[in-house]
Amino acid sequence: MTFAVEPGTVLAMQIAPAGTAGNLTVEQFTVTLDGQPAAVTELAGDHGGRLHVVRSNAGRLQIAYTATVRPTSAGPAPGDALDTEAITYLRQSRYCPSDAMVGFAGVELGPDTTADTIAEWVFERLAYVLGTSGPTTTALETLAANAGACRDFAHLTIALCRARGIPARLAAVYAPGLTPMDFHAVVEARVDGTWRVLDPTRLAPRSSLVRIATGRDAADTAFATTLAGDAELLTFEVTAHTDGDLPSDDHTTPVTLA
Amino acid sequence: MTFAVEPGTVLAMQIAPAGTAGNLTVEQFTVTLDGQPAAVTELAGDHGGRLHVVRSNAGRLQIAYTATVRPTSAGPAPGDALDTEAITYLRQSRYCPSDAMVGFAGVELGPDTTADTIAEWVFERLAYVLGTSGPTTTALETLAANAGACRDFAHLTIALCRARGIPARLAAVYAPGLTPMDFHAVVEARVDGTWRVLDPTRLAPRSSLVRIATGRDAADTAFATTLAGDAELLTFEVTAHTDGDLPSDDHTTPVTLA
Amino acid sequence: MTFAVEPGTVLAMQIAPAGTAGNLTVEQFTVTLDGQPAAVTELAGDHGGRLHVVRSNAGRLQIAYTATVRPTSAGPAPGDALDTEAITYLRQSRYCPSDAMVGFAGVELGPDTTADTIAEWVFERLAYVLGTSGPTTTALETLAANAGACRDFAHLTIALCRARGIPARLAAVYAPGLTPMDFHAVVEARVDGTWRVLDPTRLAPRSSLVRIATGRDAADTAFATTLAGDAELLTFEVTAHTDGDLPSDDHTTPVTLA
Amino acid sequence: MTFAVEPGTVLAMQIAPAGTAGNLTVEQFTVTLDGQPAAVTELAGDHGGRLHVVRSNAGRLQIAYTATVRPTSAGPAPGDALDTEAITYLRQSRYCPSDAMVGFAGVELGPDTTADTIAEWVFERLAYVLGTSGPTTTALETLAANAGACRDFAHLTIALCRARGIPARLAAVYAPGLTPMDFHAVVEARVDGTWRVLDPTRLAPRSSLVRIATGRDAADTAFATTLAGDAELLTFEVTAHTDGDLPSDDHTTPVTLA
After folding, report:
1. Distance from CA of A133 to the nearest CA of B (A)
2. C100–D147 CB contact, under 8 Å
3. Which of A152, B126, C164, D167 has the most CB atoms around it within 10 Å of its CB?
C-alpha cells in the first residue's frame, strides 16, 4: 500500500500474522519513504497480535509485507467456561451495541440459540453488498439495512451472540480464496471454553485463514491507524493464496483459528 | 394538568378532539393561572387538529379540559391511491427512520406485507413495558429493544409500513378502556385510499377512539409543547370513558377514525 | 437524468419550480421511456411545490426539464408571529433532531441567538466537503463530524434554530452560480413573521435562487422518490444560470425566497 | 446491595478495589443467599481489577463488601510514549465514539488541546443533572444534551481526548466526599507516559479516590453484570470515607491514581 504522508506522521499497522497464527517460514516487511528505507518498531498486541509502528516524514510512504505461514493444526487450549477473557468479550463495544439489542435477540433467536445458529441466521438473511456501509456503521444499523460487507456481517453476528450471553470477538484475517481479495473479518465465539471461528459470509474456507489482529470489533483491528500527522491512502493491494488447492468448507463443522 | 411556569411562557396544547372527530356536544376548556382565568387562542392544525396556545406569566398554571363527543360513523372519504397526502406519509420522520429500515422490512415481512400483517407482527412480538423508552427513542431502537409503550408500538408499525411502501401516520387519541388510562397513540395506514386505524398494542377498542392530533410521528402530536419560557409539569390526569358498555374489538376488521 | 427502471415503477419527481417561485415564462417537461413519450401527472405539494408522478414500464427512462423563471420581487406576506406553520417548523424531524440538541444549542449559542448568528456560526465552523456524509446523516452527526455538503449545513442550521425556539425549514432550490452545479439546499427561518432565506454555505447569491420544494428537512424535498418498483439513477445533470451577471450577496442583508 | 435472583444466575461483580489501589488492611466480602453463605470466585481483570463471580440459586441474594485501603503515594511507572496500552485507549468504544467526533474536537478545542483543557471544558460547560441520561447514552448524545451524570462527563472527556490523539480511559472508583454518595467514574488520560486522573465533575478530591475497575468506558466497569439467569437489583448502598479530613483538590495539579 502507498500513502501520501505529512511531516511527523505516525502509523500503527496491523498487517502481519499474529504470533500464534502458525510458523512464519518467510517474512519480509519493507517500508520506504520516497524510495529510502524507513524505520519500523514492533509492539505486541492482544492475542499474539503484532503492531508495527511507522514514524515518517513527509513524502510517499510505501509499505510492503510478504509472509509464508504454515498454519498449525492445534488451536488454542480450551479455557475455563467463565474466565476474564470470556467476560471481556460479552461486553458491548463500539460497533456491536449488544446492550441495546438484547430484546431483539431474545425474540428473534429463541432460548436455544448457539453461535452456529446465529452465524447461519446472519448468512441466510443479510445481503453481501459492498458500499452500503461506512466506517461508523454499527450492528444495529446493519440489522436495519440488512446488507453490508464482511465486517458488518461479523459485527451483527458478534452483537447477537453477546446479546444471547455467548462471548464473541472479531478476527481480522488473511483469507485465501476470498473474492474480491481483501483483508477479511470473521467471528470467534466461545463454545465449551474454545474459541470457534465462524464466517457468516461463507466467502472463504476457514481452515486456511491466517489471523492478523483480534479484538472486540473493527475498532481493534484496523489495518492502519494514524496516531499522529496525516496519511492519505493512495493505493492498496492484498494477496493471499495457499500452496496447492484451496480446502473446502461446509461452514458447519467446528474450526479453530491458529 | 398543572404546570409551574416561568414569566413569558407560551405553551401549545393539543388535547382537544380534532374538528373531524365527531360532534362535540359539550366542551369546557379552563385555564387558570394562580386561580385567575387565563387567555387561550385556538389555531387550526393539520387534519382538523386544534392547537390551543396559552400565554402565561409566572405561577401555577392549571389546565382542565372536558368534552362529550358523539363519534360519527362515517370515516373520511377515500382519497386517490397516490395523492400528496399519501406521499407525505411515506416519508421518513424523526422517530420513524423508515429510510434506514428498508432492508430489514423487506427480509422480515416479505413481498405481500399489508398494514394489517405489520401491526399484527408488532403486536405479537413486542413487549409492552412502560419505562423502557424515553422521549427520543426511535423505531429502530424499539426494534432492537423489542419493548416499549404505545408510542413505540406505533412508531415501529409506521416505520415498517413506510419501509414497505404503505403510507402511515400517528394519531394521538382519547382511548376509553385503556389501562392504565393515559393519552394513547395509534396508527393510521392508507389502504385502498382510506386511512385505516390500527392499534398494535390492542389495548383499547378502536371504534370508541377520539382523535386529538394527527401527524408523522409523536413529534407532531405532543400534548404540550413549550414554545417560550419554561413550564414544568407537576400533575397530570386523563380520563376517557364511554356512555354504556365499551365495544369489543377483534383488531382485524377494518375501522376508520372519525 | 436517466434511470434504468423495472416494470411497474412509480417515481415522484420534485424538480419543477414551486408555483410561488415566480413567473414561468417557458417550461418544458419531457419524459421518455426508451425514446417514446411517457405520461406524467402533476400533484400539488406543500408551499406551492409541484410533484410530478411518473409511472413507467421497464426500460431506460429519461427525464428532462427546462424552465425560464422571472423571480418576483415580493416575498410572501408576513404571517402571524405564532401560527400553525411556525409551530410545525419548530418540531424535530428526521435529519434535524432538535429535541436532542437543546442543551448544546443553549450553551454554545447563548440567549440572544438569532437565525442569522446561527447560520453564520455554521458557515464559519463547518468544512464544506463532499462525500463525508450519506443519505441518513443527521444534524447531530454533522455537528460531530464538523463537515458536510449543503444539505448537512442546512440541517445543522435548522436543528440549532429549532432548538433555540426559531422556526426553520429547508428549501430545495435551483442556485445559479453554485460550483459545482447541482441542486442546492438552503434554510428558511421565521423572523418577525417572515420566512427569511439563509445559506450557511454562502455558495450562491440568495436573490437568484428558485424554490423547488419546501419542507422539514431533506426527507421532504428529495428530487426523486421511488414509490413503487425500482429505478437506478444512471446519469444526472443540473444547469441553472441567470440572464446577465450573477448578483452579489453579502449574506447578511435580509432576503426572502419567492 | 440486594438482588432478587432466578435459578442458575451468575453475576460478575466489580466492587473490590483493584490490586494496585493500595494496601488493603481489612477486607470483608460477604455473600448470602436467603441468609446462607454463598460461594464467590475471584478472577483477575485488566489493570489489577478484581472480578468476583457469584453463582446463585433462586432467592434473595445479599452482597456486602467492606475494605480499608491505605492509598499508596506512588502512581504507576511512566510507560513508553507509544506502547500497546496507549494505542488501545486511543480506540473508539461503545460510549465514546471518538471516530465520529474528530471534526468537532478539532474545531472546538484547537491544535494545542491537552487532557487538562478538555476536562476543564467539560466541567465548565456540562450541567450535572441526574436522570437525564440512560444506560445506552453515548458521549455524542451527551454533547448534544449538554447534561449528564459522572459517567457521561467521563465519556465525553474520554471521547474528546481520543479524538485529539490523547489516550484516555475510564476508572470506576470509590470517592470519599462525593455527594450524593455512589460509585463514581473518572478519567485517566495518558500525559508524558503517565496515566493522570481527571475528574470533569470536580465532585470529589482525586487523591483519596480508590480504583475499582479500569477500562475503555462504562461497558468495562459495570459494578454488576448478569452473565446468566436474571437478577433484579432491590436495594443498593455505597459508603466511602477517609480517616480524618477530606483532602482538598484544585483539580489542576497532576494526580495519579494508585
Report:
1. 11
2. no
3. A152
- Paired residues of B189 in beta bridges: B168, B196
Strands of B14-162, DSSP E:
23-33, 36-37, 40-44, 50-56, 59-70, 127-128, 147-148
Question: Is a pLDDT exceeding 60 seen at residue A154?
Answer: yes
Query: According to the model, what pLDDT value does residue C101 have?
Result: 97
Q: Which of A123-127, D81-85, D109-113 has the lowest mean pLDDT?
A: D81-85
CA-to-CA distance for A157 and A151, rounded, in angstroms?
Answer: 10
Report strand pairing: D147-148 vs D127-128: parallel
Cα–Cα separations (whole angstroms), residue A248 to A73, A252, D61 = 16, 12, 51
Residues D217 and D93: beta-carbon distance below 8 Å = yes
CATH architecture of the domain covering B2-71+224-235 = Sandwich (2.60)
The three-class DSSP label of residue D182 is coil
Grid coordinates of C54? 411518473
**Are the Cβ atoms of B103 and A145 closer than 8 angstroms?**
yes
All three cell numbers of B170: 400517528
Measure Cα distances from C17 to A37, B162, C68, C246, D116 in Å. Answer: 60, 27, 10, 19, 53
Domain ranges of chain B: 2-71+224-235, 84-220
Class of domain A2-71+225-235: mainly beta
Inform me whether the pLDDT recorded for A174 exceeds 80: yes
Contact (CB<8Å) D91/A220? yes
- Cβ separation B93–C90 shorter than 8 A: no
d(CA D198, CA D35): 41
- CA-wise closest residue to A122 among A185, A75, A62, A60: A185
Q: Which pLDDT tens digit goes with each residue over D55-94? A: 888 999 999 888 888 766 555 566 666 788 899 999 999 9
Q: What is the ipTM of this complex?
A: 0.90
What CATH architecture does domain B84-220 belong to?
A: Roll (3.10)
> CA B113 to CA B191: how far, in whole Å?
12
CA A256-A189-D51 angle, to 5 degrees, is: 120
CB contact under 8 A, A144 and B106: no
Cβ burial of C26 (10 Å; 0-12, 13-18, 19+) is exposed
- For the domain spanning D84-219, the CATH number is 3.10.620.30
Identify any residues that bridge with A184 across adjacent strands, giving them in sequence order.
Answer: A173
Residue B180 one-letter amino acid: P
d(CA A53, CA A28): 16
At residue D182, what are phi and psi to the nearest 5 degrees? Answer: -170, 175
In 3D, which of C1, C31, C47 has the Cα closest to residue C211?
C47
Cα radius of gyration (chain C): 18
Residue C182's alpha-carbon distances to B88, C67, C172, C173, C204, in angstroms, are: 24, 16, 11, 9, 11
Chains contacting A (3 or more CB pairs within 8 Å) = B, D
Q: Which of D46, D93, D220 sits opposite A94 (nearest CB)?
A: D93
Query: Are B170 and B211 spatial neighbours (Cβ–Cβ below 8 Å)?
Result: no
C contact test, residue of D95, D96, D102, D104 with most C CBs within 10 A: D104
Contact C41, C52 (CB under 8 A): yes
Q: CA end-to-end span of chain C, whole Å? A: 26
CA closest to D86 among chain A residues: A227
Peptide bond connecting D180 to the previous residue in cis, omega within 30 degrees of 0? yes
